[in-house]
Amino acid sequence: MEPDQWLAQYGEKIEQAKRNAAAVETQLGGVGGSATSPDGLITVSVNASGALTDLVLRPQLRGEDPERISAAILTAVAQAQRAAAGQVVQIMSESFGDGPALDFVKAKMPNGYSGDGADAVEPAPEIQRRDTRPDDDYFTNPPDVMA
């Protein structure tokens, strides 16, 4: 291969890497996460780095135990950080694939990331848990209550 040809190919690779980096930077700029406490009284938002960007405390929290409120805030922040981190992992994975760089990014996420297998499982709504079989079928074949 001619040196000029090699240099031209190398220059094109560098330009492509710059374009990819700019695209990733743009995508990461839009990353964020939010979470709401189970009682709906606290809502938080974080940016791509996990920094708190918004905190909403509903008026019904007046008179509540401050330790309970702070614990609920911290839990919601951790959930929002996991959501944002999941978006970062997805963007990095799509842009750079699996490898040491992605492993490094994952290892630096203090609360993990959504999709890492440690996500809390929401219980099914009661309406979906109900046994809706006809009475005759239910009493002929009762559910196993004792496991």
From TrEMBL:
Residues 108-147 are annotated as: Disordered. This is YbaB/EbfC family nucleoid-associated protein. Residues 127-136 have a biased composition (Basic and acidic residues). Pfam families: YbaB_DNA_bd. It comes from Saccharothrix xinjiangensis. SUPFAM superfamilies: YbaB-like. It comes from the Bacteria.
